[in-house]
Write a structure and sequence with these properties.
The model has no long low-confidence stretch (mean pLDDT 94). The chain has 3 domains: 10-85, Winged helix-like DNA-binding domain superfamily/Winged helix DNA-binding domain (Arc Repressor Mutant, subunit A, Orthogonal Bundle), CATH 1.10.10; 109-172, 2-Layer Sandwich (Alpha-Beta Plaits), CATH 3.30.70; 189-280, no CATH class. It has 12 helices and 7 strands. By secondary structure, it is an alpha+beta fold.
Length: 282
């Protein structure tokens, strides 16, 4: 759906949501320091992002109910740690989120065929939702397709939902009857993906240029706030983009410029941001 002129993009809005920012604070930094924050240190960190205590408490309560975080005391200090499943998800996601997005060579396709009983409709819905979230597209009914490199993601989704008995996974080539490039245009809405990349570049290019021009050591609090917001906006994009080979993408693919914009920020301030978190958590 086209965005109304002057209306904030999803990319911009995501980086203002307390829950999205708090998830990034855990995903981007906590694993390097043990996967846990004391309540006091977490409060200090999110204050740098403009998140008030009430929003923090509400978010922590919701994440605890969902099993994303677990309440845990260390040395008699109250805090929250990443749940085991959430930690594994972040560990696997690093491969996709933090690796530079270069269109891969053409290795064919992964196909996912499934038939889940009517009595498990909720599981069927979650499976479809998660396949879409890792970049696959529905061809028809219970048949989904993605570039071959998404096979690992498919297996992880099946394992997490415990639905291996209902799924068959194939690797394949598209051979007939329409050109593959034309078929791809029907399987994925590349205009929508391109628009998200353009929105990211629009939102963060000035930040990238500012940090690239800077000759001084980045102030820790500023690096943390900027990198956390940029990462919060960036994190979903590599999943919404299936990662198609260059030959199936439009010319002047917007993902190229967005990728360069993100990594200009990442390369300059991800380490100063992490060092700031370490200092705040001592």
């Amino acid at each position: 759906m086209a965005r109304v002129s002057g209306e904030p993009s999803d990319v911009a809005t995501r980086a203002t949501r307390p829950q999205s920012l708090i998830i990034t604070v855990y995903g981007a930094y906590s694993r390097a320091i043990g996967g846990w924050y004391s309540v006091a240190s977490l409060r200090r960190l999110v204050a740098d992002l403009g998140i008030e205590d009430a929003a923090l408490r509400s978010s922590l309560s919701r994440f605890k109910r969902r099993g994303i975080l677990t309440a845990e005391r260390r040395n008699n200090v109250a805090g929250y740690a990443l749940g085991e499943a959430a930690r594994r998800t972040f560990d696997i996601g690093d491969e996709r989120v933090l690796n530079r997005r270069i269109p891969p060579p053409n290795r064919g396709w992964v196909l996912v065929a499934f038939s889940i009983p009517e009595s498990s409709r909720d599981v069927r819905y979650r499976l479809r939702s998660r396949l879409a979230r890792v970049g696959l597209s529905q061809v028809t009914g219970g048949l989904w397709i993605g570039p071959r490199q998404l096979e690992t993601d498919v297996r992880y989704v099946a394992e997490r939902l415990n639905v291996e008995e209902y799924i068959d996974v194939f690797t394949a080539e598209h051979s007939a009857f329409r050109p593959t490039r034309e078929a791809v245009q029907g399987w994925w809405d590349l205009r929508e993906v391109s628009q998200m990349y353009e929105d990211f570049t629009h939102e963060y290019l000035d930040m990238a240029n500012r940090w690239s021009r800077s000759k001084r050591e980045p102030p820790g609090d500023r690096a943390f706030a900027d990198y956390t917001r940029a990462m919060t906006s960036w994190r979903p994009l590599p999943y919404l983009d299936p990662g198609l080979p260059r030959e199936y993408l439009p010319k002047n693919w917007a993902g190229d410029r967005a990728t360069e914009t993100f990594y200009a920020i990442h390369d300059q301030i991800s380490l100063p941001a992490l060092n700031y978190v370490r200092e705040m958590c001592k």
